[in-house]
Amino acid sequence: MTKPLIPAPLPETFQAATQNTASAAAHNAAPAAIHYRTATVEGLTMAYREAGPADAPVVLLLHGFPTSSHMFRNLIPLLADGYRVIAPDYPGFGQSDAPDHAAFDYSFAHYADLVDALLEQIGAARYAMYVMDYGAPVGYRLALKHPERVTGLIVQNGNAYDEGLGAFWDPIKTYWQSGSAEDREAQAWLVTPEATRFQYTDGVRDVTRISPDNWVHDQALLDRPGNREIQLDLFYDYRTNVPLYPAFQQFFRERRPPTLIVWGKNDTIFPESGAHPYLRDLPQAEMHILDTGHFALEDKLDEMAPLIRSFLDREVATR
After folding, report:
1. What pTM was estimated for this model as a whole?
2. How far is CA 135 from the centre of its chain?
3. b/e for 40-49, b at 16 or more Cβ within 10 A?
4. Which pLDDT belongs to residue 188?
């Protein structure tokens, strides 16, 4: 009786070569395509970037001032192979409409409602949120409306505590208290080219890692007719977020969403002092304090992306 032939084991060198080839193929896979879409919400055109499988867990990226979904351009492809990534532009920012401020309510409450309506329209019923700067009050207001929809939080220099409003905010608080034309005008420096560049470079150890295209891009949008007044309206309306801090904190305590905090410690606007109080209400949060400034993704993407991806895969993918 002829014995069946049993294949000899592959030489270790061949096995290693095969594994290396597979690893290289995965490493060299083309990044996911990003789609630049629009939707009509309350009669306005809202622009948003979207990438990834339509049936994958949703990651919602909420931008800060003075930028747009552009701030996430490098992060999106690193997440979109396993997640449906959605990054909207608020009205007055990016490629979304920017109606005259006299005829439109530029407020954080309205932004939360608009993002909510956009998500419902495009079928994003549950989501992890990356919140940064303005994205924090927009996202946290959204969380108060639909706490059951939030599968996780990634917090990057986005404030929810009184400790996070330092000396930088003193002139803005004066404007909040008076609402005067004089104090309003005193905030106009925040939309100048010097201020925009400052936000990208302040606190960054190696400025050669920051593309000048950032502030050129953002400033071109800030300089559109009427946009100055839009931004000044938003600076004034930011005061309405502060009384909601206790409600945001209650959401953290009661819902305990899985949370990753990645914070640029050298940020003048939202300094490190605003990061640590999160642990009072989210003691299980994972925190990383990074040696950078306001727009941490610009020079710390190589550190942040693995942290974000690991967090999402571990805490969000199966929720």
Report:
1. 0.91
2. 6
3. ebeeeebbbb
4. 98
Q: How far is Cα 260 from Cα 79, in angstroms, rounded to an integer? A: 15
Q: Taking a C-beta distance cutoff of 8 angstroms, is the pair 272, 289 a contact?
A: yes
| CB-based burial label for 218 (10 Å; 0-12, 13-18, 19+) | buried
Can you give the pLDDT at residue 319? 78
* 10-residue stretch averages of pLDDT, the chain, 319 residues long: 47 48 53 95 98 97 98 98 97 98 98 98 98 98 98 98 97 98 97 98 98 98 98 98 98 98 98 98 98 98 98 92
- Which domains does the chain show, CATH number per domain? 32-316 (3.40.50.1820)
As a whole number of angstroms, the distance between CA 67 and CA 160 comes to 20
Give the model's pLDDT for residue 26.
Answer: 46
Determine the Cα–Cα distance for residues 117 and 39; give it in Å rounded to an integer.
Answer: 10
Strand order of the β-sheet with 35-41 is 35-41, 44-51, 84-88, 58-62, 127-131, 150-155, 259-264, 286-290
Q: Say how many residues make up the chain.
A: 319
Are 150 and 314 within 8 A, CB to CB? no
Contacts of 1 (CB under 8 A, 6+ apart): none
Query: Is the Cβ–Cβ distance between 72 and 87 less than 8 Å?
Result: yes
Residue for token pair 């997640």: 83
C-alpha dist (Å) from residue 175 to 107, 167, 267: 16, 14, 22
Q: What is the pLDDT of residue 86?
A: 98
Q: Is 294 assigned a catalytic role?
A: yes
pLDDT value of position 223: 98
For residue 58, what are the β-bridge partners?
84
